[in-house]
Amino acid sequence: MTIDERLSFFHELMCCNYRVYLWCYSPDLTLLHTNCPPGTAPGDAVSLIDFSSALLSYIKKGGRKPFILDTLPGLLYIAVFEYGESSLELIHIMGPAFTGRNSPFLLKKELDQRDFSVRLCSVIFRQIEQIPIIPTNQLYQYTIMLHYCVTGEHITANDIQFSPGSEASGPDELHLISSEHRGVWTAEQTLLKMFRDGNPDYKKALEKSTSLSSGIKFDTGDSIRQQKNSLLVLLTLCSRAAIEGGLNPSVSYTLNDSYAGLIEDCRTTSALTSLARTMMDDFIQRVQQSKAESGVSPQIQAVCDYISMHPKEKFSIADFAKRCGYTEYYFSHKFKQETGTGVVEYIRRAKIDHARLLLAGTRMGIQEISDELGFASRSYFSSTFQKETGISPSEYRRRNSKI
């Protein structure tokens, strides 16, 4: 099959699901031909989109992989390149397409700010309604297939290139405030550990985290949108922590998608707050259930949760046994049988895990951390830490400090 025959067949397959069109340009971006019928809505709109500068810049740099042109908010075209023996011969472009349900709204909002006549705006808005919405992951697959039709080359989604976004300054040019988020990372890690453990006392850690940070520090001008953004971040963190805690990844990802949709549907602060509580309780209960099904009894799990929640305390096996209603011997035997580790070793690891947080997220001295966690001496703490992690506390701080 020739390239034109492959492209024609590919377009027929595409149109089984989405009405998109193919455009063929010369290297200087002169339109040679298209299968978009004259007068068809998206075809009329293409002349309004100026993607020439980004595309020519990419070609000048020697780009050969597929190039996705994000010309206006949410409106995408895909460009692939047909080279001869040494030079570019043709540019094949597929589109336009949207990638999200709100993309048409964003594009209309953008065009409203341009100096178009009322009649032209009316025509464009009618055209927008005919542009298909293609999920991003599916769009990438079509890009890979289009590239293969033109070049015969097999690539992956990682090879796809994108047009540059805004001209905003990068992180190196920003005035970064190192003290503004102090303590947040440590509090966040404590909270996530409780989700991994399925610990129902997570609300205490959440309160501390909330007192240190009110969420993403980007002013959208919409308080509800701001709260939704922060809750979506929390949802992602909690769902991943739940997977680490033993929840089936498929279940966690499905929950993540479901709650993300519910978050977007909320219209008030109270609705978002109520949903956040329901969401977190749901993840905690599912992790607890997962652990229960893994063979750890409620009594032993309660002890594990308590140790994780209170790593600074001096623990007594006798107290734990009494709390469970067991003899010390039976408790120790059952604990090791169900968790795979002895009580003393489990406590030591919990303390060292907390020491990692303090070393990375605070300025506490090593002696302070040793005292805080109830070690007999700094030297004993250091030797225990090195035995558990393979490096000294000071070296761990040097490599992992977040402040």
Kindly describe this structure:
This protein has a six-stranded mixed sheet, with helices on both faces. Residues 41-48 and 166-174 have low confidence and may be disordered. It is elongated, with a radius of gyration of 29 Å. The chain has three domains: 3-162, Beta-Lactamase (2-Layer Sandwich); 184-293; 298-400, Arc Repressor Mutant, subunit A (Orthogonal Bundle), CATH 1.10.10.60. By secondary structure, the chain is of the alpha+beta class. A hairpin with a 4-residue loop joins strand 4 (75-83) and strand 5 (88-98). Helix content is 57%, strand content 9%. It is built from 18 helices and six strands.
CATH architecture assignment of the largest domain: 2-Layer Sandwich
Query: What count of structural domains?
Result: 3
Low-pLDDT stretches are 41-48, 166-174
Q: Which whole number gives the mean pLDDT?
A: 82
Helix share, percent: 55-70%
What is the approximate shape? elongated
CATH level 1 class label of the largest domain = Alpha Beta
Number of strands: 6
Assign the structural class, choosing from mainly alpha, mainly beta, alpha/beta, alpha+beta, or little secondary structure. Answer: alpha+beta
Biggest sheet features: 6 strands, mixed
* Discrete helix count: 18
- Examine the coordinates and then state which fold CATH places here, giving the name of the CATH topology of the largest domain: Beta-Lactamase
Spatial strand order of the main sheet: 2-1-5-4-3-6
Strand portion: 5-15%
Keywords for this structure?
Beta-Lactamase; alpha+beta; single chain; 9% strand; 6-stranded mixed β-sheet
